[in-house]
Structure formats: structure tokens, C-alpha cells
Amino acid sequence: MLEQLRLAGRIAGEARREGAALIVAGARVRDVCEAVEDAISRRGGGLAFPVQSSRNAIAAHYCPSPEDETRYADGDLAKLDVGVHVDGWVVDTAVTVNVGARAASQPLIDAARAALDAAIAEAGPGRPVRRLSAVIDATIRGRGFHSVRNLCGHGVGRWVVHCPPPIPNAPDDSVDRLQAGMTVAIEPFATDGVGRVIERGTPEVFRAHGVTGIGGGDPEVLAAIGALNGLPFARRQLAAFERTRVEDTLRALLAARKLAAYPPLVDADGRRIAQAEHTVYVGNDGVEVLTT
User: Fold this and answer.
1) CA 23, 29, 33 angle in degrees (round to 5)?
2) Catalytic machinery residues
3) Rounded to whole angstroms, what are the CA distances from 44 to 8, 111, 134?
4) pTM as predicted
5) How far does Cα 1 stand from its chain's mean position?
6) pLDDT by residue (tens digit) across 171-218?
7) Crossing angle, helix 219-226 and helix 243-255, to 10 degrees?
């Protein structure tokens, strides 16, 4: 398991760096996401979720549709969120790119990254999750920003992107502790707003809770979704099928209450957000960062 996680982590880190270098003013967001997905495939990894790139006030879950023509602009804070699995073992990592290298944008990016480093330094077997949350929040506040309080890190597992324990970006009443053998994604979000996101926009990320016994869905599309073993997917991953077949199948899954949809998560006040994320393995003596 650990060797598979390490391989997934190496693939994710390399693909994240390759993708971040492509994020420049004028580049199409969809092209960058697809290039990262190709980089993962070329290295022998599988997609734990479709690559996403959220900009500015959008914190997460912006996934380009097959027709999306959105391009990065100078001054953007562009998040790149990458998930990889090897034989189902999942890692999750993200970076924020300062498009155009604007000096005014860098402190927010640095705050998220510093909070991630501080949380990793605090992590270890037996450590209270609440302590990691406190370190994240204190680091971001110490740099003059706010953590996004209703977003959190999370455990990852085999064929599972989100599982316990949650790792909030500000301390709450959690009594969870990290345990040896856990794999967790730590992901601080820093903002110059109040630190709360809401769902807004059309979802392009979905997750099926099983595809058997669905009436009205296209059998081939259902088979393609079922082959993902419950991992999240996007319309873009089903582009080989006619769009009407895809939409009919999504409607059938929704009607059967076997489909979760994830709209973009946007700062409630329209303020900008930066993210940094690594997946770590909790060993007996400390943690190993898998996604460097």
C-alpha cells in the first residue's frame, strides 16, 4: 500500500509541477487540465478525480466542461488541484499560481503555503487534529489574512477521495487524533475575505453511488462511470459519447438518487482565495509527504 501511495504521490507532484508551468495569461483552462490528466496517464497513474483549476474567488471544484473556452488572465490567482491513484490508493495535491507574478498577489499565496508547512510540521501519530487546525489558522492570521473556515483537509483511502478525519482550517470541537497508518490531505485555504464559501455555478464534477438497476441511462455511459469504482468524474471524461447520451444518463442517475454533484465553491464576498495542499502518510515516527 505505501509503495503504491508513494508512486501516486510522485506522479501527482510531477504532474502538478508540469501543469503549473502551463498556467500563463492567455492559456485555456481546459487545455491545462487536460495536459495534466495526460501527464498522469503517461506516468502510469489514474485520475482520483478530474483535474480542476479554480481562479480568484472560486476556491475549488471549477472543472472545465468539454466546451469551456475560459482562459487565464494576468493577475489571476489560479489554483490547480490534482488527484492521482495507483491501484485505487489516492493522493490529493494542489498549488496556487500567481499569473503574471503580481507582487500584490504573492502574500496570499505565501500564507496558504506557510500554513501547509506549519501543519505538516505539527502532524504526527497521536497528534490532535484540532492542533493542526489551530496552527493553520494562526499562521494565516499572522500574515494578515483569514482561513476559509468551512473548507477542510481530509483523509484519503482506497478508491476514496474524502474520508475521516476531517482537518478543518480553523479549530473546532474535534476530538480526532492522527493515527499511525492514516493517509491525510492537508489543504489550507487563505483569503482576504471573511473566510466562508458557498456553492455557486453549474456542477461539472460528479460522483456515482452505484450504477446498477438504473432505468433510462445509456448502458455504455453507465459502464464507463461504473469502471471508475466510485471516484469523482467530469463530463469531460465522457466526451467520447454523444452529449445527449451523457446528459440522459446523468439525469437517470440523479432521478435514482445515485449521483452527487459538486458545484464550484466560491467566496461568499467575492474575495480571492489561495490554496496549498499535500497528502501525507502518518507513520509510527512522524509523517512522510507523498506529493512533493
Assistant:
1) 85
2) 81, 92, 154, 162, 187, 277
3) 9, 33, 37
4) 0.95
5) 21
6) 999 899 999 999 999 999 999 999 999 999 999 999 999 888 888 899
7) 70
